[in-house]
Structures are given as structure tokens and as C-alpha cells.
Queue: 4 jobs
Job 1
Amino acid sequence: MGSEGTVLASEASDGPSCVTVHVTGFKKFHGVSENPTETIVCNLQEYMNKNGMPKGLVLGSCHVLETAGQGAVAPLYQTLQSAIPSENSNPCDSGKVIWVHFGVNSGATKFAIENQAVNEATFRCPDEMGWKPQTALPVEDITKALAKKGYEVMTSDDAGRFVCNYVYYHSLRFAEKNGTKSLFVHVPLFLTIDEETQMQFAASLLEVLASLL
């Protein structure tokens, strides 16, 4: 593991009240034959349309990534770049942009809002400045708001040492350089928390993000 420091991503400047949220999940991997995040991400647009989109929120792209460092990061950067507003963007596109990455923790019994990512030398990702990025989003406030809605949810400072952490690390670096924001959320298996509850949680998370920003 490389040396570690702490850098907070800069806060976005005031802009339109509209918040655009893009989401990613992962495909299945060894030991997890059904990844709940793939189901969540694939069904989220339809679920939100059916149940009503919160005011001020636009659900952008929904992507499912390969559960492998090299397989996930290349398409991740492509999708991150696609969300950067252009000169011809509509007014809402010039508002706040958030990436929400969902990953599964097969041993978890609660949802976890991840505060930071750590550079891992095992992924051959050099980090000359010892950067340990943290999200600029109000993790504690997000967690409290979701807990008030009845969800079993906690904050976490350890996104693991697998692809979840790797993707979060790259997403936070991208966010710092491009004025967007990034958040990683770990979910349990559907055997632990059923699919409908997890879909409700994902929708509630987007609602909380729109209300806090």
C-alpha cells in the first residue's frame, strides 16, 4: 500500500438548484452469483419514473461495470467524462453533477455510505502524493436522513480493498479535477435485505441527495 494523506474534494460553486445523478453498479463476480447492484442500476430509471422523480433531481446515466480493476476503470472514465456539461448543455446540465456508485458487501447486514477511498499499490495505481481522497458530500447528514426513513444504514471509512475501492478512488480523483461529486454506497445481498427494500433505499438516497444540495 502506498503512503496515505487526506484531501477534500472542493465544493462546487453555487448554481441551478437542479441535481443530476448518474449511477453505476457491478456485474456478478466469484462468490456472488447475483449482484444486487446490477439489478438496482438496471431497474432504477423505471422504478423512479413509476414512483415519481423528486423535485430538482434528474436521473442521468445508469451503467453496470465489470467487477475487475482493468475492466471497470476504462468504461468508468468514459462514463464520467460523458457527464461533464458542454457549452451546448441545457440549464439543468450546468447544475450539480453527482456520481453514485453502488457495490455489494456480501457479509453486510446494513447499507454503508462510504466516506473515502484508499490507493492500493496492488492495483499498480501510483500515488506520488500519497492521496487518500474523501467525498465532499455530507456523509453524516446523508446517513442520518436515510436512518430517519427507517433504513439500517451506517457511515464507513473503509470501502474495502477490492474493485469497489478502486473505482471510488478513481471517481473521487475525477470529481476533484472536474468539479463533480462522487459517493460510494455498499449494499447487502438480496438474501439479507430484499430487492424491493433495496430499490426503495436507492430511490430514497437520490431524494436525500437532491434535498441536501
Note: Residues 1-16, 121-129 have pLDDT under 50 and may be disordered.
Job 2
Amino acid sequence: MTRTSTCIYHFFVLSWYIFLNFYISQQGEDPRKSTVFLNGGQWKYLTFLNLLLQALFYGVACLEDVLKRAKGKKDIKFITAFRDLLFTTLAFPISAFVFLSFWILFLYDRELVYPKALDGIFPVWLNHAMHTSILPFSLAEVILRPHCYPLKKKGLTLLAVASLAYVSRVLWIYSETGTWVYPVFAKLSPVGLAAFFSLSYIFSVGIYLFGEKLNHWKWGDRMQPRKKRK
């Protein structure tokens, strides 16, 4: 894909995520839908945090596209490095995690993650926009643009920090309100919760490593992390 086409694609996806974030932000004004956002607001859900994250990433990608055309590659190394770090450690792993974890639980027992009652509140297209289209967009980004992965220690540390921050927020909301963000958590014992969160992080690490392998398969050794010289 040419540089212009990639720029147009990034702008299209950015516009889509901006629209989704704006649309969802307006749903709190509906009395029926506002109940979903009680005890923590919309940002208690990883799904909505992911939509904001994707909008941020594609915003950076669009900025990098524009600056690259205006200034050239040498003057925007920081923006390019930040774009790659954001995508490899957060945007790709989290979008894939949301897609896979949601649909696995949904197909097993939808009441654990997206109760049937929500069908009368949120339209079907919005459910797929939040939980289905996110992965194809991320996979397309891998195919269309090479991304330089950081050293594994750095990448997995950032992913661990993000995971710990979200788990801490989930636990804090429960301690303050007595309600769990997702119904599945209410079904688990303290030991079960610890195992669930641990397995979720291991799962996200697997996704991270898969993304790195996929990037290497498409773009080769030139996009592998650079080791520091001793």
C-alpha cells in the first residue's frame, strides 16, 4: 500500500474510533443505558478503554503520516518510536485480548460478560464495533505498516503495568461499591479470581509474542528489536 493510501486508511480508522467514543459517551444521557455505567462509569470496562486506546494510537499514526510527508523520516524519529511502542505493547495486545476473551466467554455463557438484557439497550452493530472489528483493524495495521518491537523485557513490563493498573481499578471499584465490573468475577472465589487474572496476563503475553512473530513474518529481521551494545 502506498504512503498516501496508508495515510487515508489511518484517517478513516481514526474517524471511526472517534465516532464510536463520541457515540458511546452520549449513551449515558439515556436513563436505560446509564444504568450500565453505574459504579465506575464507562471507563470501568476494558472494552471502552480499548476504544479510547485505539483512537489514541491511530491519532498518533495519522500525525506520523503527516509529519513524515512534511519533514521526512529523520525529524520524526520520536513520533515513530512512540507509535511503534504504543501499538506493539498496548494497542495490538489489548484489542486482540478484548476480541478473544469476549467472544470465548460470550459463546460459553454470554451472561458472564454481556447479558442478554443488553441486547435491548445497545444495538447489535455497536456490539460488533466494540468487540469484533477491533481485531481486523489491528491485524490490518500489522500487514500494512512495519512496527519495531522493543526488547521483550521492556515490552512485557509495559504490558504488565497496564494489566496491573486495570486489575487494581476493578478491585477498587468492587471495594467501594460491592459490585463487580463483569458478572464472571462474581462467580469466582478469591483464589479463582487470582487464577483468572494471572491466566489473563499469561494470555495477553501470548498475544504479545504472537504479534511480534506476525510482524517478523511480514517484515523480516529489519524490524526486530535492537539490542543495546555493550
Note: The chain has a mean pLDDT of 90.
Job 3
Amino acid sequence: MAICSPSSESSSATSGRAWIVHALVAGAAVAVGAHAAAYFKWFRKGRSRVVGIIPARFASSRFEGKPLVHILGKPMIQRTWERAKLASTLDHIVVATDDERIAECCRGFGADVIMTSESCRNGTERCNEALLKLGKHYDIVVNIQGDEPLLEPDIIDGIVRALQGAPDAVFSTAVTSLKPEDGLDPNRVKCVVDNHGYAIYFSRGLIPFNKSGKVNPQFPYLLHLGIQSFDSKFLRIYPQLPPTPLQLEEDLEQLKVLENGYKMKVIKVDHDAHGVDTPEDVEKIEALMRERSIS
């Protein structure tokens, strides 16, 4: 899986590799109030130190204990951790959890673990708490979803480099092509971007939605991949931002960022999403791994 950043439409057309969708300038002076000037000074500084954090919780309405489910003999969170370790941009990787069962499992296969509060409302807040407890300075925090055991390390490197290359950005994430059959699946989050590659909106519903009410197989719908990276200073601000109506309605963390006026840099990658959302997905992942001779 490759990622590249086009300098023009022609160079993009001649490239057979994945392309980077341009994005992001930070807005929301309202959110930072009188501190806006100081806030934007942060963006001019280098972002060399990067930590990857895998937030994990045991409780889940759809799939309780999901991080510990075995995928061909290994806990899923171990497989995610092993994939993340292949990324070249990460200086350190930790698992952030509020459950001792997950912590014990992770320590058993050699992962560093940070215990976080049960009060964390989402993975982003868990990443923020873990960052504070690490006690070390990092410029970028990568929130790595623990339910993508086949995540490509190139995607991690791609969103990190995208944020490093955009000093006025606070957030970066990745999308890939949406399969038509997944168009109406609420577990597959869709994304739309403007002509400059800025994220316009994320939804569990099909976006854009045409007046026929059907999926258009010719339209290049985008599927959001859960992985995202933050400027570490912005991550500390994030928990202070109140929940927003769209975020609560869609149950999507990234909408709070958009609703508060910030914009996101998005990269588009050539990657088949293989997330584990339900117990039924485990068999699908294992079958795919056998096809690819992944042990």
C-alpha cells in the first residue's frame, strides 16, 4: 500500500499509487478565545516526536471484550500493536486502557500500558489522559484504532507525515474508497471533502445522498478509516470543548472538531478496511488472513 502527495492533477493522474487529499487550516478562534494568537504559534514549531496510542476498553454494546478476542491465536489488540510497530514514524507505542484484563494481556506480549480513567467518553479523551500520564513531550499523537488488526503501517506513516507537512493543521486522518455494498452500513463511516481536500462532514449515513435514495455505483464515495493524528497541544484542548449536537447525533468524535471550527487534513489511501465491529467480523478477518498466509 502506497501513499503519495500530488503536486498537480497531472502528476496525480500518472501515479498509480494512492493520493493525498489536501486539507486543513485550523480555525476556531472562538474555541480558543483570547489565546488564539498563542495557539497558532504552536503550529509553526517542528513536529518531530511522535507517539502512537492504542485506546482499548473492555465494555462495548456491540462486542464486549473485543480487544481480547483471538484472531488466529493472538488477541486482536496484540495484532494491532504488532502492525503499529512496523510504522517508521512512531517513536513510542502504548496501549491506554481502563481494564486490568486488557492491561495484563498487553504486558504479557511486551506492550507498554498506561491505565486511564473509566470516565473517558471516547478514544480521543483516553489518548489525552495517556499522553499526560506518559510525562514525556511528544509533538504528534496518533490515535490507533485497536479493531483493525490488518492496518497498514504505511497509513500511520502517511497521516503523520501529512501533519508534519502542514504546520497550520491540528488533525489528520485517512479515507479510502467505499464499496457500494457498504453504502448504507452505519458501521462504515463516510466522509466528504471539498475541492481542496478539506473534510466537510463525516456520517454514518450515505453522503452525499442523491434524490433517488439509492447508492450510485459510479460515485467515488469515501470511507473513513478510524486512525487519526493530532497536534499534541490541540489534543489537550479537545476534552475542554463541549460535546456538539452533530457529534452526539452521529456518535462520531471528529465532528466535534469540525463543529468547533477546526479543519482536517485528509489523505486518501488504497486500503481495504477490515475493522472488527461485531463477532461475525472475526471469521471474515481470519479467512482473509489465511488467504494472505498471515500467521
Note: The domain at 44-285 is CATH 3.90.550.10 (Spore Coat Polysaccharide Biosynthesis Protein SpsA; Chain A).
Job 4
Amino acid sequence: MSQAVFQFSSSSVSLPMDIIKSPVKSIFGSQLKSWEIEQTQMRYLDSFKRTPTLRLKALRESAGLTQEIIDNPQKSIGTIEKGSDTFKEMRHRFLSFKKDKYLENLKHYQTLAKGQAPKFMVIACADSRVCPSSILGFQPGEAFVVRNVANLVPPHENGPTETNAALEFSVNSLEVENILVVGHSCCGGIHALMSMQDVKNSSGSFIKSWVVVGKDARLRTKAAVSNLDLDQQCRHCEKESINRSLLNLLTYPWIEDRVKRGTLSLHGGYYDFIDCTFEKWTLDCSRHASKVDGEYSVKNREYWS
């Protein structure tokens, strides 16, 4: 049921002065008699009845909803039933999880209730087709996960975001041993980045303002494969942006320090959901690691198919 919203202003209603001057504290105190309360309520009600603006404001929303149901009852009922079916299925999944996993591993979940100690921090895309837990089999308590559009990591100088807030907590508080940035095929965020005509003018769009974080990956992609069509450029950039994010991780002093001490490793991953393959590599930050174009090389590259 919709709620009526009443807005009182000098242009819409004129209330009796004795109502306006009535002290608020008397309504909550013990001095106001019951007949006084009734009289006050009646005067408000009378003002409301005599003011069409207020009546229209109060009835507009509820009348609109009622008319919609009258005009198309099957659509309204179908929408309600569809929503109900969706949550029935969700309820079934939750109860199955409780029965088959939670209660079967009760001791483990009771331990998790006391605290978490994941070994992995995962940065993945918000794309509904790319769920790290489903793809890589992470179980509750194994990975601290943050997901954003195009799985980007902004450099430290860009200031606070939910992504580096999650990084700070996972590295400094949870002391994870691995950070894994997972990109994927057919990424809409990367497509938006590669389709931008001017990365310097990203105002007016939340998406553009965010994906411009990957502008370095875009520049390197344009320099390397500008002769290819847009889809092929996007595929190249999907992987290039992962490496840019890995390098951006090193702009955070507390990440760089742990990497140098060997207590934290940085990994990249690329999930191709067209043929269900996965590439994995690790940023080589050792003292003797060779660098390409002044940047770190990778090691332990694997291809899972």
C-alpha cells in the first residue's frame, strides 16, 4: 500500500494560527486533556478537507497504482507471482545450502563465525557470468572478494574507493598472502573504455568516469593492435588491463612493502567463458627479475582448459 505524502507550505495551505502556535511539548506532556487532542485533530482534518492541493497530493500515488491494477490486472498479478516464484527458488537454494553444506560442516562454519583468515584477496568483475567462487571453487572463508566494473584497481594517487578500502582491510588486517585480479572475455566495461573517443572527457557518466582508470591499458592496446577491429582490441585490452591493475597495486606502500618482503604475491587471471578456459600468471617482483619496458615481467604462467 502506498503512503500518502503531505507537504505543508504557505502556498498550498493556510492553517489556523492557534494550531501553529500550539506548543509541541504539550502534545507529549500530561497537560493536554483528551478533548483538546480531539479538537486539534479536528481542526487539522478540516484544513485538509478544505484544501484540494493536499488531497490531490495524498491521493495521486495510490490512485495511480489502483488504476494500473484496474487497467491491467493480469500484468499486475503476473508481476507479483513472478517475484514470488523468484524468491521461492532463492529460499529453496538457501535451505539446501543450510542442509547440505552448513549443517554438514557445522564445526567449520562455527569457526568462521569467530573470525576469518583467508589466504586470497580476489578482485573480479561485477559481471553476473563471472563468479570467482563458482569458477575457482573458493569456499566460505577462503577468499576476500571485491567486484567492480572491469575488475580495475585504481592507483593509490586516485584516492579512496571501495576497491582500495577492501585492499587495505584484506592486506593490513587479514594479512592475505595472495592478491588475484581476474578479468574475463566479452567485458562490457573494457568495451566502454575502448569505445571512448576522449578519455579526458568522462563527465556525465558513472561508467566512463570509472573505466577511465584503465586508460593506460587502453593506450598500450591502441599502440599495439590499432590495426585490429574493436572486438579484437577489446580482447587484448581485457588482458592488458589486468597487468595495469597489478602494477597499480604496487603504488600502495603497504602492498609494495609486503611484496618486497615476500609475504604477498600478486597474480593475474583471465577467464574466457566462451570456451571455458583460464589463464593464470604471477607478477615477478624479485630483485633479479627481468623487466620489459621498465616494468616487471611475469612468471608461472599456466593455461587451464
Note: The first helix runs from residue 17 to 21.
